[in-house]
Every structure is written in C-alpha cells, then in structure tokens.
TrEMBL record:
Residues annotated to bind DNA: 29-48
UniProt keywords, alphabetically: DNA-binding
A GO term, aspect molecular function: DNA-binding transcription factor activity
Protein's UniProt name: TetR/AcrR family transcriptional regulator
PROSITE patterns: HTH_TETR_2
Pfam families recorded: TetR_N
Limits of the HTH tetR-type domain: 6-66
Amino acid sequence: MFRTYDEVDERILDATLGRILQVGIRRSSLDDIARRCGLNRITLYRRFSGKDALIEAALSREIARVLAEATAIASTTEGTAAQIEETVLFVLRLTRTHPLVTQLLAVAPEEALGFYTVRGEEMVSQGIEYIAGVLAAGQEQGVLAPYDPRPVAELVARMAHSLMLTPTAGVDFDDEQAARAFIRTTIVPLMKYGIRSGGDAAVEGASGPERTAGSK
C-alpha cells in the first residue's frame, strides 16, 4: 500500500520534513533540502522528480507512520470494541497534534489550509484503503459483521480529515472522556456492524461477534 524507501530516500524525506516544519512549504526549495541532507539537486530529482513529488512523498510517509502506530496499538489491545476505540482515538488525536498540523500552522498559516485541502484527496484515499483493509481482515477473522467495508472506511477517513480542518466544532476532542464517549457510541458500532437500515444494527449488536482480533 505504501512505498518503501531506502536509506538515501529516508534521508531526503527527513530533510524535507524538517525544512517544511521550519519555514513552510513554499519557502522550502530543493536547494535548501539538498543542503540539509548533504546531497545535490540531481540526486533529489532522480529519486523524486521534483519538489511536488517530494512533498507528497514526505506526507505519505508520515501517514504511513501514523497508521503503523495505530496497527501496533490494535495488536496490543484486548477486545474488538476496545481495539476500535483505542486506535480511532489515537488517529483522531494525531490529526490535531501532529507537527505537520501544528507546526505548519505556526510557521506558515496561509499555506496550511491550502496544503490540507489540495492534498486532502491523497490523505483521505490512503486512510480509506488502510481502514477498508483492516475491516476486511476483521471480517475474515469473524470479529466484525459481514458488510461492505468501503463506505464505512470512507466515513471514518473523511471524519478524521474534517476534524483536522475544523477541530473545535461539536464534540470537544481535546476532552478525552468526551472523545471516547463519541467514539464508543458512534464509530465502534459503525465499524463492528456496518451501515444498516432500521433496527438491523441494534439487533446484531445484541448477539454479534465480540471476540478479539486474534481469536477464532
């Protein structure tokens, strides 16, 4: 799903992220990034074909890191509902506290909105693919009800992106108790049972699967 990088690529991406957090995107030139990582522009072009591709790669890598951490949290949490609650809470918290959100707003506020709306399609798409894969795996293990995972994955991914852009409306996600209550009563049943009409979800919720992700 995500591209893998060799040591030189990682060095370039680290330099790119560092420069973005220092001065913003527009003021981060390839010359700046090349100097920061001790390489030349030709090497950067050969590997990433230009500044836009480099910025997108740096963003994609950060998303991959967040999702890898979410996977680690799920693997160490017992119970399907608790796994969903802990991982969703983690991701929603990161959408508000990650340096690419907070620091970019601090150093280049005029760029931040454009950055996350123009590049929002890629962010949401990566989130959808990841969540849909997790839901499908849960269905194969029998811990989630059988349903089409992609609409649910899209709702959750779009919610996370929306929260990043508009963090203060509605539920106060800085209040962990309020955030957990929201996730527990909306996202957990949504991901366990899917989008159902009428009372189907409530009926299945009374007798649906409740095992951990690793159980048979």
